[in-house]
Write a structure and sequence with these properties.
This protein has 445 residues and is mainly α. The protein has a single domain, classed as Amino acid/polyamine transporter I (Up-down Bundle), CATH 1.20.1740. The protein has 23 helices and no strands. The two termini are 31 Å apart.
């Protein structure tokens, strides 16, 4: 018998799995190219966590007001205009889930290849995407069990890694406090352009704090449980990320990790030795499956909702007898496979971070519109700290986006080009969405 609705526990694990994975195990090496202070790196992850938490609190009210699957696509369509929602759905379908799925699979292949050099990272990455997509194409019950198992194993491994790092790791000559030898460099790094650009890498690592909103329609009591899952998941991951990056810097020299993808493996070798370190690297690689699984579980729900709303894309809404949008899953998997074959890791990482930040920026901005119109009266949760919370999110996001455009114009232009292509697709064959052309109608309890 298939699972009818996802419980709060599973929804929280989906959020955690959507966040923990590729970014935290790969992005530190790129951050170290611009920031050389232990204090600066930890502050980077703290600020990134604050951005994610503020975003999660804002999305909680949006989800409670409009409890339907689809995430930004659904919210922006109802708050602003179907065109804005379509662009967000386009970005989420092309970039938001397929690209992170590809990156997670590429990281998995890279980790395993460093332990077993004879293996092909590309074939490994492609194979795991095919297998996970196949597993998630049958029933929600099977998907939930698979997700729960791998996410709990992932959390257990990370906690073990952190504890072992504190107990048996050899400390590096590095300061994590601003008032010691590298204090000036630490404080200075926080206000530098390198810090702002590095936030793109960190924001990608934290991306996934909104995962539960994409499958809100499949969650039990979404008005209450989606906000809770976003909050609980983000807080847990924020603590894990700061501790894990502390251990990476505590256990391994910065020079060895700088510019490298497999920072988790490098740290593991320094903590456990070569043999046990390679084993831990393999475990990290296998548990990246939890992240891939969460993307495959949640991502196709956006395409499904777009297919339900847009007659031209109705094929995306095709589901099996258990309600799984298997056509959308297959298409997302194909896009991820194409990215594996055509893109480099670092450039895709920046491209994803910039493009997704644009989407979340306008969604949080929509919260002000929702409040002004009074369309949040059915919400069981209201954003804590409003209006300061969304202002913090928007201000830090704008700062990050500005410096990314200045420092990395090619990747930024590619992100904006993706949005422009979506605009062309929309107006070439403009969809008819009668339900969304009307003002938002307040539901009565």
């Amino acid at each position: 018998m298939s699972l009818k609705k996802i419980k709060l526990f599973t929804a929280t694990l989906v959020v955690i799995a959507g966040m923990v994975g590729t970014g935290v195990f790969t992005s530190l090496g790129f951050q170290l190219t611009g920031i050389h202070s232990g204090f600066g790196i930890l502050m980077l992850w703290l600020v990134g966590g604050i951005i994610a938490l503020c975003g999660a609190l804002c999305y909680g009210e949006l989800a409670s007001s409009m409890p339907r699957s689809g995430g930004e696509y659904h919210y922006l369509s109802k708050i602003f205009h179907p065109f804005v929602g379509f662009l967000s759905g386009w970005v989420s379908s092309v970039v938001g889930f397929a690209a992170p799925t590809a990156l997670a699979a590429m990281a998995l292949g890279t980790y395993i290849n460093h332990v077993f050099p004879s293996t092909s990272p590309i074939l490994l990455a492609a194979g795991v995407i095919i297998v996970v997509t196949f597993i998630h194409s049958f029933s929600l019950s099977q998907s939930a069990k698979f997700q729960n198992i791998f996410t709990l194993l992932e959390i257990a491994l990370i906690l073990f890694f952190i504890v072992a790092g504190f107990m048996i790791g050899t400390p590096q000559n590095i300061s994590f406090l601003p008032n010691q030898s590298n204090g000036a460099e630490g404080w200075h790094s926080i206000f530098s352009s390198s810090f702002a650009v590095s936030l793109i890498y960190v924001s990608y690592a934290y991306s996934g704090w909104n995962t539960a909103t994409y499958l809100a329609g499949d969650i039990e009591n979404p008005r209450r449980n989606v906000p809770k899952s976003l909050f609980y998941g983000t807080i847990i991951v924020m603590v894990i990320y700061i501790l894990l990056n502390y251990i990476f810097l505590y256990s391994a020299p910065m020079s060895e990790m700088q510019g490298q993808v497999e920072v988790g493996l490098i740290s593991a070798v320094h903590i456990f030795g070569i043999k046990m370190g390679n084993f831990m690297g393999m475990m990290i690689a296998l548990l990246l499956i939890a992240s891939i699984s969460s993307f495959v579980l949640a991502g196709p729900r956006i395409a499904q909702v777009m297919g339900e709303d847009l007659p031209q894309l109705s094929f995306l809404a095709i589901k099996n007898k258990h309600g799984v949008p298997y056509v959308a899953k297959i298409i997302q998997g194909v896009i991820a496979l194409l990215l594996i074959l055509t893109a480099s890791f670092g450039k895709v990482l920046l491209y994803i971070g910039f493009t997704l930040s644009l989407s979340t920026f306008f969604t949080v901005l929509g919260l002000f519109v929702l409040r002004i119109r009074g369309n949040n009266k059915t919400a069981e949760y209201k954003t804590f700290g409003y209006p300061v919370t969304p202002i913090i999110f928007l201000s830090l996001s704008a700062w990050m986006l500005y410096y990314t455009i200045v420092e990395h114009p090619k990747e930024s232009l590619l992100g904006m080009a993706t949005v422009m292509i979506g605009s062309v697709v929309y107006f070439i064959k403009k969809p008819t969405i009668a339900i969304h052309e009307k003002p938002i109608i307040i539901e009565k309890n």
